[in-house]
Design brief:
This protein has 330 residues and is an alpha/beta fold. The chain has 2 domains: 176 residues, Periplasmic binding protein-like II (D-Maltodextrin-Binding Protein, domain 2, 3-Layer(aba) Sandwich); 95 residues, Periplasmic binding protein-like II (D-Maltodextrin-Binding Protein, domain 2, 3-Layer(aba) Sandwich). It has 13 helices and 11 strands. The strands form 2 sheets. It has a 6-stranded mixed beta sheet with strand order 2-1-3-10-4-11, sandwiched between helices. Strand 6, helix 6 and strand 7 form a beta-alpha-beta unit. The longest helix is centred in the first third of the chain and has 28 residues. The radius of gyration is 23 Å and the shape is globular. The N and C termini lie far apart (68 Å).
């Protein structure tokens, strides 16, 4: 009887120790939070937050942080919709378009402003807006932020794309390929997010024909926004707040340490795209960008109205419930 009791106690003790070991392993594994962004200068806050460990600092050591880069907003939004990522930086255009089509997305902060420059290929004989008629222009994706900015500006000047009965020919492609597209003569105009506009200017002898302050919504529209899902906000607002806090921390770092941020951006873009930008390119591009986490809701609504006018959206948008500023308010 005594032997049986000893064996029972020993078994119970081992069981408790095993259970404690499992709990410890679970705590070490923890939750995984996946952050998405693009390898361009408008998304530098995500690069800085990654490199400086701000996400890890704000989320805690029991959280595993993973990062995923995207070539365009459609791919990012699909990843958010299917739960492949929890949050990240994307252009406002894709966020608005997918929200209008029923995707559960919330804009919880801004990432940057500016950075969209319209470049003409050397040899395209484009000297003014009228010369763009009949020419081929390239954007990262149909209806993306940069596309809407350019087509809004052109429509205000009486010129539209073939998609809506006009004369401009539209094609799409990754910004990192724009230089080769210019060299081959396949496109005449590039609607280029920085730093690719500066690459074209310095390395392909291209000319800016519409700068970042002139193009529609150029200085007021967030060039990138911090987005997540409404479900995550409802289920884990503390997690969302930590993500926003890391983003704010990165934005402050960028504005206080621009040279260090430029170096981080050069290294990250090289790692993702295989293209190492020169310091000269980065310096030129940096002058066309501003970094802020505050969202201008009125501009986003005006941008959405223009997207509808250009027929990228099927229904007139109402973005009053798209933006959630509770996490960025001081």
């Amino acid at each position: 009887m005594k032997k049986a009791i000893i064996l029972f106690v020993l078994s119970l003790t081992l069981g408790l120790l095993t259970a404690c070991g499992n709990n410890s392993s679970s705590a070490e594994t923890g939750q995984t939070v996946r952050i998405g962004y693009f390898p361009n200068i408008n998304h530098v806050p995500a690069m800085v937050a990654k490199a400086e460990g701000f996400y890890q600092e704000q989320l805690g050591d029991d959280i595993t942080i993973k990062y995923q880069t995207f070539a365009d907003g459609g791919a990012f939004m699909n990843a958010l919709k299917t739960g492949e990522i929890e949050a990240g930086l994307v252009g406002p255009g894709p966020a608005m378009n997918h929200y209008s089509n029923g995707t559960d997305v919330k804009i919880i902060g801004a990432g940057s402003t500016g950075g969209t420059v319209i470049m003409a290929r050397n040899g395209s004989n484009i000297e003014n807006l009228e010369d763009i008629k009949g020419k081929t222009f390239i954007t990262p994706r149909v209806g993306c932020t940069h596309d809407v900015q350019f087509e809004t500006y052109m429509k205000e000047n009486g010129i539209t794309s073939e998609r809506i009965g006009g004369e401009m020919v539209h094609t799409t492609g990754k910004p990192a390929t724009y230089e080769s597209m210019f060299e081959s003569g396949k496109v005449d105009v590039a609607v280029a997010p920085e730093p690719w506009a500066s690459v074209l200017q310095l390395e392909a002898d291209a000319e800016p024909i519409i700068d970042e302050t002139e193009v529609s919504f150029g200085t007021t529209l967030p060039a990138s926004v911090l987005a997540t899902s409404g479900d995550l906000i409802e289920e884990n607002p503390e997690l969302v707040q930590s993500i926003v806090d890391a983003h704010k921390q990165a934005t402050t770092y960028i504005n206080e340490n621009p040279e260090e941020a430029k170096t981080l951006a050069i290294n990250e873009i090289a790692e993702v795209t295989g293209q190492e930008l020169s310091k000269e390119v980065m310096d030129l591009a940096w002058d066309n960008i501003g970094f802020t986490y505050k969202v201008d809701a009125e501009t986003i609504q005006a941008f959405g109205d223009s997207s509808y006018d250009l027929e990228f959206l099927k229904e007139e948008p109402d973005f009053s419930d798209l933006i959630d500023t509770q996490f960025i308010e001081e």
